[in-house]
Amino acid sequence: MDEISSVYMVRLMYEAEPAVSEEDVLERLTARIGEVELMRPSDVPQPELQDALNFVFPSFRVRYADGSEIPVGCNMIMLELKPRDWEGDHDLVQSWNWRQAKLVVPNCRWSIMVNDFLALGLPYKDRLALFHNIVMSVLDVAPCSAIHWMPSQQFIDPASYVLTKDSPDPDPIYPAINVRLYNIQDREPGECVMDSIGIAALGGLDVQCHFVGLDPTDVAQMIGNSAYYIFNQGDIIKDGETIQGIGEGTRWKCRHEDALVPPGRPVLDIDPGPPYSAGEREVRE
């Protein structure tokens, strides 16, 4: 089973090669984040990243067990995209918030890969807030045609993304959480798995529900609400406790399990109970 990565990465996609200078990006990073240092190629240990733009953030540091502290960083590398058939692409199919993505993404020929490094030990809310500022800094310099938010397995509209971040009341989470739907074949008719994807990639907890006979639209709303609640409040729901299900007065039992659908990660499983429960529940060790 695929595992989640220790780096957090998105792909900014362009129809034509973007013009990006390290001076412009550094200026925007400094304006949005504060103290930023540019890493010279000789300071980058990975040869494949020596042509990238590499920055570190001295105010964002991760403390290790031996007492040492290392600043978090990010890098950006431009890549030419190889032609490919996008028909049926998993992340395009799961891009529920931007259905026009299937018309835009195939026209993109260049990308800027943006990822953090040494950031896994940051509190996940701080890590995501920093990453949003990194992405927004690149978009200040080089607006793109599409964003592939890889940890939440979806393509998003850059204009909508910028609007949510530069508004007077910015959304601190979108698009870090996505809700996926999978129809289970050769099993009970109407059997589905729905889950959230994206929180575990930051070091938090995703949510899943394995069910039959329920309206997926209603389940998606419940999964999304639960995922946002856990992101904001943390992993506070204990095994055996219940949350509001679908319909007034319903209570659905929760327990920690391993995800049914890749990538491999811990999830909070929400069991709708009979007659809607599907599959076996197994406690995560």
Tags for this entry?
285 residues; alpha+beta; 2 domains; 7-stranded antiparallel β-sheet; 6-stranded mixed β-sheet; 6 helices; 13 strands
Coarse morphology: globular
Low-pLDDT sequence parts: none
Question: Count the strands?
Answer: 13
- For the biggest β-sheet, the strand order reads 2-3-4-5-1-6-7
List SSEs in N-to-C order.
EHEEEHHEHEEHEEEHEEE
Structural class, by secondary structure, is: alpha+beta
Considering DSSP H and I runs of 4 or more, what fraction of the residues is helical?
10-25%
Percent in strands: 25-35%
Instruction: State the domain count.
Output: 2
Q: How can the largest sheet be summarized?
A: 7 strands, antiparallel
Q: Rounded to an integer, what's the Rg over CA atoms?
A: 20 Å
Tell me the span between the first and last alpha carbons: 17 Å
Mean pLDDT, nearest integer? Answer: 90
The number of distinct helices, counting runs of at least 4 residues, comes to 6
